[in-house]
Amino acid sequence: MAGSEALLAHRTRVMRLYRNSLKQMMSWAIQRSLIYEEFKNIRSQFEANMNVPTLGEATRLVEAGEKYLAEKAHPDPYIVPYYYGGSAYHRNPPFPKQISIHRDFGREGY
Amino acid sequence: MALRSLAGSIAKSVVQTMGVSGPSALGAGRLRLGQAALFGLRGYADAALTKDEVTARVLEVVKNMEKVDPAKVNEESCDFTKDLGLDSLDTVEVVMAFEEEFQLEIPDDEADKIASCQQAIEYIAQHPMAK
């Protein structure tokens, strides 16, 4: 899966890198006041490299960014509970329609 | 009825103890705690979000973003790049703001497709876990 990012368009790759870096920062910096400062830092790092002349150099920068992101992975990232890997994933899965609850309290008849 | 007024008063006290004075104090629209608290404490009668409610909240979020001119945001023509003049990193920030507003997790490939308010409204309205 690691090599499949190279198949994406460059713009999409940059957008995904930005998204994942913001989400990872939300896992690391749990105090809300720190988060917006760090978001500004990340944004300024992205904007500093915005006007790079060749696509090859831009691709190298994106790959370096993805490598940096993988280095700083959070050991216990925040995942929304109902999503894959979250705590409430499949907590109440829907059961098949053949199973029905037959309520006959008091009328069992044995 | 009584439950909703009780919920409203609880929500107001939550907003007051957090020291938040309303949407104007919440900055770039990412932290919608007051509004989430008000909408989150609902009875079970209206568990699903209606499309009007989704539209209203989405437009609120977009209007509160720093780089957006609120006068330009209307329902029909708010493509992020063409109408509002945002670049791709701003689009990412807007989608993150939607995720925080509706307490969703939008996967990467769906989030890349959202390029205007209309697409965002359609996506959120059909998402089962949108609050």
TrEMBL record, chain A:
Keyword set, alphabetical order: Acetylation, Electron transport, Membrane, Mitochondrion, Mitochondrion inner membrane, Respiratory chain, Transport
InterPro entries: Complex1_LYR_NDUFB9_LYRM3 (IPR045292), NDUFB9 (IPR033034)
Membrane topology classification: Peripheral membrane protein
Example of a GO cellular component annotation carried by this entry: mitochondrial inner membrane
Protein name stated in the entry: NADH dehydrogenase [ubiquinone] 1 beta subcomplex subunit 9
Cytoplasm keyword on record: no
Organism name: Chloropicon roscoffensis
CDD domains named among the record's database cross-references: Complex1_LYR_NDUFB9_LYRM3 (cd20263)
Cell location: Mitochondrion inner membrane
Family statement drawn from the similarity comment of this UniProt entry: Belongs to the complex I LYR family.
Swiss-Prot/TrEMBL GO biological process terms: mitochondrial electron transport, NADH to ubiquinone
Automatic annotation (TrEMBL), chain B:
SUPFAM superfamilies tied to this protein: ACP-like (SSF47336)
GO MF annotation terms: acyl binding; acyl carrier activity
Signal peptide segment: none
Main location (coarse class): mitochondrion
Superkingdom as given in the UniProt entry: Eukaryota
Family: Belongs to the acyl carrier protein (ACP) family.
Protein name from the UniProt record: Acyl carrier protein
